[in-house]
Amino acid sequence: MSECIPIKNGHVCLVQTGFNCPKCRHAHSEMDWYPKMEEEKSVVVYINCNNCNEEIGVTTDIKGDVQVWLKSNEND
């Protein structure tokens, strides 16, 4: 969840960039997904969970918070 703090002449926004796997709850950090997003220049990337090997979709919302889902659930 993001939080914006007013400062002189603007705002500083803090966003959550880590997440837990939607299947096994294994913790993932920004370094698990951001380099791939930056390399592919895409708004959606897929990574494999280091614990359960499930494929996870990763994107950011308009506030900059990470949104994740299981790729296997995309057609549901």
How are the SSEs ordered, and which strands pair?
Layout (H helix, E strand, L loop, with lengths): L2 E5 L2 E5 L4 E2 L6 E2 L1 H11 L4 E4 L6 E6 L5 E5 L6
Antiparallel strand pairs: 1-2, 3-4, 5-6, 6-7
Write structural notes for this entry.
- The structure is a single chain.
- The protein has 76 residues and is mainly β.
- It is built from 1 helix and 7 strands; from the N terminus they run E-E-E-E-H-E-E-E.
- The chain has one helix at residues 30-40, and strands at residues 3-7, 10-14, 19-20, 27-28, 45-48, 55-60, 66-70.
- The strands form 3 sheets. A 3-stranded antiparallel beta sheet has the order 5-6-7, covered by helices on one side. A two-stranded antiparallel sheet has the order 1-2.
- A hairpin with a 2-residue loop joins strand 1 (3-7) and strand 2 (10-14).
Gap from first CA to last CA: 26 Å
Low-confidence stretches: none
Number of strands: 7
**What is the SS-derived class?**
mainly beta
% residues in beta strands? 35-45%
General shape: elongated
